[in-house]
Amino acid sequence: MAQHQSLADFNASLKAFLDASPTPFHAVGSMAERLDAAGFVVLDEADTWTLESGQGYYITRNDSSIIAWRQPDAGAVVSQGWRLIGAHTDSPCLKVKPCPELHKQGYFQLGVEVYGGVLLNPWFDRDLSLAGRVTCRDVSGRILSHLIDFEQPVAVLPSLAIHLDREANASRSINAQTFLPVIMGQAGEKPDFRELLKQHLGQQGVDDVDSVLDYELCFYDTQKAATVGLHQEFLASARLDNLLSCFIGLQALIDGGEAAAGQVLVCNDHEEVGSMSACGAQGPMLSQWLERVLPDADQRNRSLSRSMLISADNAHGVHPNFSDKHDGNHGPLLNRGPVIKINANQRYASNSETSALFRDLAELVGVPVQSFVVRTDMACGSTIGPITASELGVKTLDIGVPQFAMHSIRELAGSEDAHGLYRVLQRFLQTDQV
């Protein structure tokens, strides 16, 4: 097995990944670059594949979901199974509407949709930029897609002054339709948004665009990821839920080395809105991939019976100002290790066997483990874990790094926990026990 990265190197690389990944499209592009550098080979789902045992490969779908793996020997994977790590590439955000242009009081604004369960208040008074995917017709008539990222602050969502709403701290609620149009600037006439996109693509070096046909764009906070706290105890960034898990799984796969069992990382889009899409966890992407890499149905089913999936998605750390929101015995602390997520109603897919294996692996590498159970009088969220378990019929564990401010524009995690989970997952990819 390859050596672990040091904590300092790991966190530096993690922050660079977070900053380079403002959208699921950019996150998958960033992951692909790191896989390329590690010797993995990209495959096209439309091509016939010729796979070599021991070689690393990856595929993408919709530019926003990715599966990466080391191709195992067919005989070995039947006897040893697969070690799968799952995560998701999307985060709650504000997405630009198809016809977004608004012109009020001399200000140029864009209308937005709320994607996922966004914590809306922190989006106000931030320096916002815009990124995503733009689909164009080029000068030769071809339809092509390009990633776009304005990088610099180009928009803001100012709060209403307290003087104009004296009850704001006590009772202001946010109307998503009327409060969230984002201010892009001042203009005497309403600008053509698609023309602005075309111009910026030209600045990025894409100068053969005839017209912008459509786009999938979201706003994001331009503040970079940082370690903060009196002793740098915390990692602050946008999109920790769940790019943190994507990065941890990616590095575990890259640094894990070969093993008899098949090693797989799957990062799906659309988890925050239910996972029901062609590239989501409730879609066919993973099962279709598995049928191609192990075509024989008998071998495939036998291998799955010896397999395990670890679904990595961040957990709610107990907030010192709101500790009553947690069960008294199940309040995970930051920098005290990854969290096993448990729910009797199968909102999480963990069971005693998968939890026990994770605890054993964590003990072997010296990483502490915590447990999370939601208060019995509160509703429980869910992950791709139960979805993937029901699609593949594979034993599954739900775990995550504890964090604060989940679904905020800027979230907070412990600066040690991601590295600890990386070490456990690296060991998981090597284990012959499931």
Automatic annotation (TrEMBL):
One of its GO terms (molecular function) is aminopeptidase activity. The keyword Zinc applies. Its cofactor is Zn(2+). Signal peptide: none annotated. Its EC number is 3.4.11.-. The keyword Transport does not apply. It comes from the Bacteria. It is an enzyme of class 3 (hydrolase). Keywords: Aminopeptidase, Hydrolase, Metal-binding, Metalloprotease, Protease, Zinc. Belongs to the peptidase M18 family. This is M18 family aminopeptidase. It comes from Marinobacterium alkalitolerans. The lineage of its organism: Bacteria, Pseudomonadati, Pseudomonadota, Gammaproteobacteria, Oceanospirillales.
